[in-house]
Each structure stands twice: as C-alpha cells, then as structure tokens.
Amino acid sequence: MSRECEFLVVGGGIAGVSCVESLVICRPNASVLLLTESSVVKSVTNLVPVARYLHKFDVREQDVSEMGASFETLVDQLDHINSSEHFIRTKAGVEVKYRYLCLCTGGTPKLFSGQVKDPLVIGIRDTDSVLQLQRKLATAKDIMILGNGGIASELAYELKEVNVHWVVKDSHISATFVDPGAAEFFHIAMNEVNEQDSSPVTAIKRMRYSEVLPKEQTSNHGAALGPDWHRTFDLSGAGERGAKRLPKIYYKSRVHSVQNLADNAGVIVNLEHEDGSFEQLTCDFIVSATGVLPNTHYTCDSPLKYSADGGISVDEMMRTNLVDVFAAGDVCTANWPAAMHWFQMRLWTQARQMGSMAGRSMAAASEGESVYQDFCFELFGHVTKLFGYPVVLLGRFNGQDLGRDYDILVRCTRNKEYIKFVLQNNRLRGAMLIGNSDLAETCENLILNGIDLEPYGNDILNPDIDIEDYFD
Ligand SMILES: Cc1cc2nc3c(=O)[nH]c(=O)nc-3n(C[C@H](O)[C@H](O)[C@H](O)COP(=O)(O)OP(=O)(O)OC[C@H]3O[C@@H](n4cnc5c(N)ncnc54)[C@H](O)[C@@H]3O)c2cc1C
Ligand SMILES: NC(=O)C1=CN([C@@H]2O[C@H](COP(=O)(O)OP(=O)(O)OC[C@H]3O[C@@H](n4cnc5c(N)ncnc54)[C@H](OP(=O)(O)O)[C@@H]3O)[C@@H](O)[C@H]2O)C=CC1
C-alpha cells in the first residue's frame, strides 16, 4: 500500500501537532499527513499569557480521529526513511511519498540500569507508564526515586501513603530547575506546609556567584504527559492512610549496586555517599527519573547527524543535515548559535515553539520563500509548578553559561515567595520567580532591553517599591 502527501509529520506529541497546525495555516491547500504510532495525540489548549512572550497552557489529549478535516492522519510507526527518494516506510509496510518530512518522535525515559529486573525499575513518560506506577504503588510501602529533575520533584511532592526515598547526586533538590536557595525554600515549605505564619519576614540579599555555590553537606543524605498529570491519577501507596510523610532525601548519593529480592518482592539498594560511606535501603521498586533520550528508533538511507546528547541536530530553521528533512521537539538538539538569553531544555513550551517553527519553515521552503527565526528563541521562558508553587524561569535563571562573573539578588519570604535576579554588569540576565509571577513581564523587558540597573541598587527587589511602575 502507498500514500502520497506534500508534508509528512511524524509524531503526535506537542511538537508534531504544533507543526501540523502551523502547516495548515501557512499552506491551507497543501496535503498534510500526520503519522503517529499512538491514536491519542496531544495539542496545546487554553493558552494564557503570563507575560508578553511567556504563556502557560494546558495539554489536551485527543483521539486522532477527532482532529478535524484539515489534514490526514495515519496511525502506524515510522520504520525507515529514504531521504534521497523522498519516501518513508512504516512498520505495517505502508510507503508514504513526501516532499517535506518533519520528525517529531519525542523522547523515551533514560533509565538507570543497574542489573535490576525490568519491572522493578520504571520510568514515567506516558499514560501507560503512570498506570504501571499506579499498579505498583497499590502494594508498595517503600519506593526509591532516583534523579533530581522535573519528574523526581513532582513525584516527591505528590506521592502519598508511601515512604519515598529520594536519591539525588547534588547537594540540593530539584537541581535541574532551581538553585540551593530556592531548594531550601521548597524544603522549608514542604515541612511547614500546614503551619500558619502570620508575619512572614522578607529578606533581600545580594551575593557574588561564589557565595551561592552549594555548601558542603555535613551529613549524608537524587507522547509525554501533560501539566498536572499527577492530579488525574491516584498516586497512593499501601502505607498507613492519611499519614503525612515527607520524602527522605539522600543528598550527594549514587546507586552503587542493586540486588533483587526473591519473587520480584523488591530490591536492596546499596547507596554510596560522597564521603565514601555506604548505606543500604530496601524498597518495593525504583522510579528512574533520570532524564530523556531522543527517540530515533528508525533507519535511514543516509546517516542523520546527531548531537552529543543523542538528539537529531537541527539548524535555526529546524532543518536536519538531510535535504527536505526537518525535526522538532524532544527528538532534536538545537545546533544553531544560541541567542544571548536562550538555551534548549526539553520542555513542552519548546516542543510547541520548535514544532511551529518547523511548520513555518517547511511551508516557506515549499514556496521558495525564506522566513526569520521566531522571536521566542530570543528568550528562554518556562512556566511551571513545583512543590505547589507557581514558578517562572526566564533567561539564564541559574547563571547558565555566565561563568562566575555575575551577581545574584534574592528576595525571599518564607513559605510565600522566592524571587531571584541574576545580574551581569548590572544588567538583568535571568530571573527565577517562585510564588509570585507578577514581575514576569517587567523581567522580560529588563532582560531583552538590557537596561542598566545600577542606579536602582538593591531597591530593584524592594517589596515596598513597585518596580513595574519604575520601568513602564
Ligand atoms: C511526566 C512528565 C511531566 C512533564 N512535565 C512537564 C512540565 O510540567 N512542563 C514542561 O514544559 N514539560 C514537561 N514535560 C516534558 C514535555 O512533556 C516534553 O518536553 C514534550 O511533551 C515533548 O513533546 P514532543 O512532541 O517533542 O514529544 P512526545 O510528547 O514524546 O511525542 C512524540 C510522539 O511521537 C510518537 N512516535 C515516536 N516514535 C514514533 C515512530 N517511530 N512513528 C510514529 N510515531 C512515533 C510518540 O508516540 C509520540 O506521540 C514532562 C514530561 C514528562 C514525561
Ligand atoms: N515541571 C516541569 O517543567 C517538568 C518537566 N519535565 C521534563 O520532562 C523530562 C523528563 O524529566 P526527568 O526524567 O525528571 O528529567 P530531567 O532532565 O529533568 O532530570 C534528570 C535528573 O536525573 C539526574 N540523573 C541523570 N542520570 C542519573 C543517574 N544515572 N543517577 C542519578 N541521577 C541521574 C540528572 O542529573 P544531571 O542533570 O546532573 O545529569 C537530573 O537531575 C525533562 O525534559 C524535564 O524537563 C518533567 C516533569 C516536570
């Protein structure tokens, strides 16, 4: 069997669907085919601006048959690309001739492998994996979470009625998103979540980079789902009902070895702490929240160029090294000279932006036109929730790639907000807004305009001064 289309997009995640949506707008009369291995596809909905360039949105799951008539769909798996003859072959043996192809095949969990029997170490990516987690939790009393990024932070906060052993290699939690100060803010909030503090005290402090390096620990203590995915599943273990359990955190630790208990009853994990000491813990299973690997399980007549992290290397127009083949979302790695305030992180905001960009770029190529890269790639922005707090991350919010030559100005009100400005040569280079996103638009402007903030000194974060007024 064979088919033909002008634009073929592979993958029904946010990147693929955004790419198709953009193609349908730019080239309404062209034939567009979405090839997806799952009949459930994801799209962005309820887009709400948080600032001028920053949005929060929901991710909607839909059956591919409900996608409307403006493009065609095929539920099957990409197996082989023949880029020189412009066709692909699916697993079911269908050949699809295309003029332009976009690969949006996302990622898969990069599981920690430590000679553990498969069912005892799981990763979270899609609904099936959460159902697997749910089934395992139903009989579990102790689980270990390995990793220190988005998924580990969400699970450590959301899991109920189970003892959580959270193993992180850093000296603070949630290291992919926050600094040690913000981690401490979350840690205190987790402990005091039900305690009312009628008079929160606000502190403002300016520090040099070297002051915020993690303090050495003295004791020994690690198609994707949509936002708030954990709210739609009961993630309770088999422990005592209603008991408040805080995760036990093992800082600066790594898994040294793992031993399976008989009858898949669990695992004994031997942890190695940074000081060389060892500690043993027994758990029912391990959640490996240790990142994603780009999903490229298909063959190609000519080699695709990959980046060091395994992503398909793309330029600013989302083009791969193969003619008329584009890629977007988690599967690709941005290989263009990054703008001053932007860097890649595998997040759905970027999957959406890259998917739309790929769509525009393919449409322009088909008409012999050229387009500029979208402005969204000028400024990194991420809106999320961590430990129950709204979080906005802008620019180089953790001083990424700034070396040691920057200042940090922090305003912190216990259990209320943690606001951090990253300043270089008195110019705002990044911001972390936890618990209060009112400053998001002002921060966007300050970062993009590079205004000299020296005249304002520490007042820039004085809660009694409305800095939005200052810079209007
Ligand atoms: C638990 C979890 C929570 C997350 N929370 C957040 C968050 O709060 N905020 C945030 O910004 N990001 C979050 N992310 C990350 C975000 O979900 C991803 O960055 C984003 O969804 C990537 O979109 P994508 O379209 O590139 O890939 P995916 O969503 O992985 O979609 C890839 C699609 O391609 C299909 N596919 C793969 N191979 C083939 C093939 N050979 N043939 C046909 N189809 C194929 C897959 O079935 C899938 O439909 C989270 C991720 C996870 C796992
Ligand atoms: N709220 C949000 O925005 C959320 C976003 N996500 C996204 O979903 C994707 C998957 O999330 P997640 O799996 O948490 O990935 P992340 O990339 O966010 O975090 C992976 C973490 O695991 C650590 N790690 C990697 N390998 C090992 C290992 N062998 N042993 C111990 N630790 C290890 C990493 O450390 P190091 O960095 O030092 O390698 C990092 O701390 C990511 O793209 C993430 O950004 C997920 C959930 C929520």
Automatic annotation (TrEMBL):
The gene is Dere\GG21221. PANTHER family: PYRIDINE NUCLEOTIDE-DISULFIDE OXIDOREDUCTASE DOMAIN-CONTAINING, PYRIDINE NUCLEOTIDE-DISULFIDE OXIDOREDUCTASE DOMAIN-CONTAINING PROTEIN 1. Residues 8-190, 254-355 form the FAD/NAD(P)-binding domain. This is Pyridine nucleotide-disulfide oxidoreductase domain-containing protein 1. The keyword Transport does not apply. It comes from the Eukaryota. The keyword Oxidoreductase applies. Its cofactor is FAD. It comes from Drosophila erecta. GO terms for molecular function: oxidoreductase activity. InterPro entries: FAD-bd_OxRdtase, FAD/NAD-bd_sf, FAD/NAD-binding_dom, FAD/NAD-linked_Rdtase_dimer_sf. Belongs to the class-I pyridine nucleotide-disulfide oxidoreductase family. PYROXD1 subfamily. Keywords: FAD, Flavoprotein, Oxidoreductase.
